[in-house]
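User: I'm putting together notes for a lab meeting next week and I want to include a structural view of one of the chains we've been expressing. I don't have a solved structure, so I'd like a prediction I can at least talk through. The sequence is below, exactly as it appears in our construct file.
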Amino acid sequence: METRSTVRIESHPYFEVDEERSRAFEEVWSAAKPPFTRLKEVNNIPIARRYIIASFTFFLVGGAFALLMRTQLAVPENDFLDPRTYNQLFTMHGTTMMFLFVIPFIEAIANYFLPLLLGTRDLPFPRMTTLALWTYIWGGLFIFSSFLFGEAPEAGWFAYVPLSNREFSPGLGMDFWDIGLSVAEIAAMGAGAELIIAILRMRAPGQALHRLPIFAWAMLVFAVMIIFAFTPLIVATLMLELDRKAITSFFVPEAGGDPLLWQHLFWFFGHPEVYIMFIPALGMVSQILPVFTRRPLVGYTLVVMALIAIGFISFGLWVHHMFATGLSPTALGFFAAASLLIAIPSGVQIFAWIATIWTGRPVWRTPLLFIVGFILIFVVGGVTGTMVGSVPFDLQVHDSFFVVAHFHYVLIGGVVFPFYAMLYYWLPKVTGRLLSERLGKWQFWLMFIFFNVAFFPMHELGMRGMPRRIYTYGAGLGWETHNLVSTIGAWGFGLSAALIVVNLAWSLRRGRPAGANPWNAGTLEWWEPSPPPNAQFKFIPFVRSREPLWDQESVAPEDERTARLLEPLRSGPTRWRGALIVSVLDGRPLAITQMPTSTLWPFVLSVGFVVTFAGLLLENLWILGPGLGVMGVSVLAWFWPDRDQEAAMEEIGTEPGGDRLPLAIAGPLSNGWWAMLVFLLVMATALATFIGSYFYLGDGPGWPPVAPAAGSATAATGVALVATGTTWVFGRAVRKRRTTPRRIGLIATAVLTVAFLHLSFRGWTELGIRPRESAYASAFVGLLGFEWVMAITLLVLLAGSLAWAFTKPADPRGHGLALIGELQGYFLAGSWIAVYVVLYLVPRLW
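Assistant: Thanks for the context. Below is the predicted structure for the 846-residue chain, given as structure tokens.
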């Protein structure tokens, strides 16, 4: 390929260090030591490889389920599968592809390549990365284990109520689905939170937001959307599981509940979910396309704005799936308009890609073929998307195979084809060897042809009236030929999609060495060797453009002051793992952060998760208790102070001064403080979901049955407001380094929090309502339960802060925990005021 790379690194003094320092640095970042090496590993590269293998395995299994279903539908009145098995395969195919493949696969790719693209050594919370991997694997296996007990879920991957309640799904199948899905989604949210902090705060110096690689922008939008979309789903699955266990009545019509509430909550997640999967694929296309057209992306700023617009608009589309549920014409018109509006930012990106190809010098390698194939297929999916966005047309094809065709044109054409472009582009960086170009081109053409053979006839099937979600059909309906052709195409597509495994196996044995930059690309991941070392950047690069390997002669710091600031990170530190923290907007060096080393505790904690959830599944305290115990011990051991932190504080210091970067331990400078902000954003979204459900269920006469007495709740409100004052006291004392006010403020806040718990609980017991009695009682106790969880979380943080305050009051780690507790204290008070208004004041206005 024609070269554009201009960067030179070898001759610059910045990259010269003695061998002893270099060896010590590499030893610090080496793999985990025996025993339990694989279970203790926290480096993002090996963890990401396992993530990729696990998620791609789920993809192959989910694809196999689809082929079995297509075989059943190949001919009329087929008895290849019985109805129950078909429904189980249908449910697990959708669940696997939507929850266990696409999102985890995207996060796995991000775990591997984002640090390389950003010019940093790892993600901000390596142990969280490991925990997310194991939790995701356990969650997936938890769901699939239902097959071993003959209890696989069969209510559809959308789990519509009442199909998913005890009456119509009486076994444990939906409990496996509910609980296992929650485990996997919590892992996805943890990974998403980590990506947000990594992209905003851990970048190469000089890599301002306007110089971010386009894939990083896509992953930032992706991660923020996960926070707002997955949280309602977790709340909804919690509601469903409590209903199934006869504890609540959120979706029970006889008790005032509403099955449509489930659809609103699920699709508030479900339609943004489509774009959560789609946006990273768009980022991959925009990242790869300039490399094979030999020019920068046309309209970088417009493409970034389009990604953000798609993420924002996608949250206004969920009723797109509910046009046939009897909504008002006003609501139908609003959501139809939103469905059409989202085509505009999507079209902006398509025009940017076409302009990039048109004005560039295309090199027709396999990644570019998959990108062009994606554009063609996605345009078809986009056109059919605007069709079903029209209410009259949607009412005609709703729940027909036309929707199945549209859905797969968008998700396979719009997501899987970019994934394959990315695999052919980035796998040489992972393995150090190029894939076969000939086999890659064969794979593209087979996948492109068989995909259209498989899914294009489904449009016609839908227009001819074939409903989806059926396991067989009668002869003579005019569907036979289309279904047979579609099945042949599905088998061809499935086999051709698996060719990547053959190509990878060939590459590992006979592939040509890739070298550092086989594509002559311009972004930082191609500056490192292939495959990269555990510590991706022995020398922190300095960025002055979007394509530094094309536009810069060197990635060394451009001025002496920056070089002095980065000196501790120049093939160092050598006793502990360190990485750089930069300002959000302009990528200015702010601090050095100490990165955790290998440990077994994330794996142990994941085991505690799965044991706890097994106890919930079986309603067995003898299983639940040990699971909670393992979780508690693991969390305590995880955050127990270690010698690396002490070495970092001793070597760097926590106070800024002159040309020296401080160690980020406490407050807004630390990643932990930012992680707490993301956690509170998740909790605020969960609270909004509960409040929204309360008002949705109360949209009718007789809600609430009586205005609840507010005496104890009002007292709890007063206590919460006083607690904000004591929270301010200990927070200010921490910042001013005053020990006695800090201790007094912490103790006072803890006492007031206990009093708040007592008063809010008494306010509920005085009413004498039980959540099973009615939907009102369920929503009431749900909101109170949320506040109790927040109060208990605050007490845990206060207990840890008090331990630091009395044992090591000068230690900045204790300061950091107290400042996190300060955020939680303010959130508890603010969220309780919202709950108090909703539960106790609003009913007096009805």
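A couple of points you could mention at the meeting. The chain is about 65% helix and 0% strand. The chain has a mean pLDDT of 93.

User: Perfect, that's what I needed.
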